[in-house]
Task: inverse folding
């Protein structure tokens, strides 16, 4: 994905190397090729084969224990005709878009903020990144306790409007999920933006200052445009990552109340491992893969023509 | 260009050092002017982060009576470690061991074989290596969750269901693409003259790899090890699907089941949350810069 951005920066180095390196013989390349075999073996066996397997299983009927039979296109027809799929799809995109809208401005602001060198900002940054250390399960459990209407935040802060049945009302549960996802992932994106801001050449700001541009102008005319690729990287990770917010939602709401937070990944798990319908669950998995690929390609395209080739390389 | 980028990222990670660097001061004074929106967001966000963390820690130190009787955000009147003792007695040491075994058992092979592959991809030529590289790059786009059903099937057929090894194998496979990408970026930065002189000294590629490339890429290796380690340590789906015995639970799964069993004893549940995070917190205190660098490995270099 976007990580390949850094690969793309060094084509010149690579070209120079291969020219000045006459020692490539068949023998040597054969030795080197052997070095990739262990990694290749693991990768093919436990990543590529399962990827092919999920496509095959989407045409099979299997309850997770017994024999595997053929289902033809049956799974696909039944899943595509199931309103549950569209509910899950809609929720997935809703959470994706809401998460992006919530997390991007906050991460960007905090990234700019923590990139400054004042000591108190550094101290704050140490605390900001704490959520990165926690597992999704831990975050979900902590928030469940925190939101207890009697013994949680609402009483602690004396804010009665926080005393809601957060996990029992569909739209509240959905809002909660979006908030907790932001709580857990904003630090990561802050870190990415912090790195991006620190790479902006200072001379740009000096020039702008000489030209008399104010702080806000500088932000919109220098910082934002300079962060273009950082924004694309962060957004790609955010959007594609949102397809996989499984752990957090599983522990926090379990998809409920009703099906109001049952996103695609959760839908797949519940169909497969709770309802023992591995075939239809595999159909959902294939859909997940396709959406992920489509989104990644689409976001890379936004990155503009010049960068496109090299970033697609990283897909 | 890459050197410029790298030195700037390496110097900055916030802290006293950033202040000491003289040229940074200009940046600081510029940032100070952005204080209003960013500063406001900064302090509000601090509260949003700190209050839940504070709540979890103080509640874990409360007795049941304290939890029900006191203001939830007040410090415990009679702090107790009872909850921690209870959690530890509930086999937490075992879960901790399981997590450690799985994390080490996944990260060490991942880094080792990815390093070998990255070395070959950078040093070698030819169609095969290009193909391998292309495959790993495509692998970055495969989401682990979408392949969980076939992985489950394979693990059953391999008679590995309900074993710690079952958790390691897919973890290794899915960590390889990004690890290879990051390590090969670093190996590319090793000056060619060094490889040349190794060759002139009659060293084999194997020797060059261990004696030259490995020591020179050590920081990158630490970085990817941390990145992968955190992911495996906090991983939830694989243990949920691939194990069932209580004795084989890893920490995130143990947290989840513990929460189900002790839902009436919130202080104990939160003590388990604190305990499961403690090792990473220690790591954060010791090597914050390395840890944060590891987290964004490959994304913000």
Result:
């Amino acid at each position: 994905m976007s990580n390949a951005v850094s690969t793309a920066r060094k084509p010149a180095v690579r070209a120079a190397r291969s020219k000045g390196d006459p020692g490539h013989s068949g023998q040597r390349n054969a030795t080197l090729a052997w070095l990739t075999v262990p990694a290749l073996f693991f990768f093919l066996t436990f990543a590529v084969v399962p990827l092919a397997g999920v496509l095959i299983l989407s045409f099979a009927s299997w309850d997770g224990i017994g024999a595997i039979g053929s289902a033809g296109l049956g799974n696909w027809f039944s899943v595509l005709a199931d309103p549950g799929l569209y509910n899950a799809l809609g929720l997935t995109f809703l959470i994706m878009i809401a998460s992006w809208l919530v997390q991007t401005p906050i991460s960007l602001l905090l990234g700019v903020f923590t990139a400054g060198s004042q000591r108190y900002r550094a101290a704050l940054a140490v605390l900001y990144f704490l959520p990165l250390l926690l597992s999704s399960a831990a975050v979900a459990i902590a928030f469940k306790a925190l939101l207890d209407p009697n013994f949680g935040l609402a009483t602690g802060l004396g804010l009665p409007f926080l005393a809601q049945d957060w996990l029992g009302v569909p739209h509240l549960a959905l809002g909660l999920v979006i908030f907790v996802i932001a709580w857990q992932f904003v630090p990561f994106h802050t870190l990415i933006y912090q790195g991006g801001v620190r790479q902006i050449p200072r001379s740009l700001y000096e020039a702008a200052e000489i030209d008399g541009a104010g702080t806000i102008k500088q932000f919109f005319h220098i910082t934002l445009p300079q962060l273009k690729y950082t924004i694309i990287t962060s957004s790609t990770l955010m959007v594609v990552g949102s397809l996989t917010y499984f752990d957090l939602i599983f522990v926090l709401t379990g998809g409920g109340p009703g099906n109001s937070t049952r996103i695609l990944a959760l839908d797949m798990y519940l169909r497969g491992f709770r309802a023992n319908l591995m075939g239809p669950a595999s159909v959902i998995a294939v859909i997940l893969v396709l959406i992920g690929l489509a989104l990644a390609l689409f976001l890379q395209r936004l990155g503009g023509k010049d960068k496109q080739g090299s970033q697609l390389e990283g897909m | 260009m890459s050197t410029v980028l790298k030195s700037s990222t390496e110097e900055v990670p916030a802290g006293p050092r950033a202040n000491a660097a003289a040229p940074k001061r200009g940046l600081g004074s510029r940032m100070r002017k952005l204080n209003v929106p960013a500063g406001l967001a900064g302090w509000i966000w601090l509260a949003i982060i700190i209050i839940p963390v504070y709540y979890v820690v103080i509640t874990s130190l409360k007795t049941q009576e304290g939890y029900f009787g006191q203001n939830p955000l007040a410090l415990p009147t009679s702090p107790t470690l009872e909850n921690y003792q209870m959690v530890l007695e509930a086999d937490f040491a075992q879960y901790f061991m399981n997590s450690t075994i799985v994390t080490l058992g996944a990260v060490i092979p991942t880094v080792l074989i990815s390093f070998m592959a990255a070395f070959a991809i950078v040093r070698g030529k030819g169609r095969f290596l290009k193909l391998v590289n292309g495959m790993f790059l495509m692998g970055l786009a495969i989401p682990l969750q979408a392949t969980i059903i076939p992985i489950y099937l394979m693990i059953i057929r391999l008679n590995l269901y309900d074993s710690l090894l079952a958790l390691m194998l897919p973890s290794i496979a899915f960590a390889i693409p990004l690890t290879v990408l990051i390590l090969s970026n670093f190996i590319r930065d090793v000056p060619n003259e060094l490889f040349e002189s190794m060759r002139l000294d009659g060293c084999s590629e194997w020797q060059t790899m261990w004696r030259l490339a490995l020591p020179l890429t050590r920081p990158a290796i630490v970085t990817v090890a941390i990145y992968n380690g955190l992911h495996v340590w906090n991983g939830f789906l694989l243990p949920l699907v691939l194990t069932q015995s209580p004795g084989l639970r890893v920490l995130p799964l143990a947290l989840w089941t513990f929460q189900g069993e002790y839902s009436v004893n919130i202080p104990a549940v939160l003590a388990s949350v604190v305990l499961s995070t403690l090792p990473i917190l220690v790591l954060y205190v010791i090597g914050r810069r390395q840890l944060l660098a590891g987290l964004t490995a490959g994304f913000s270099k």
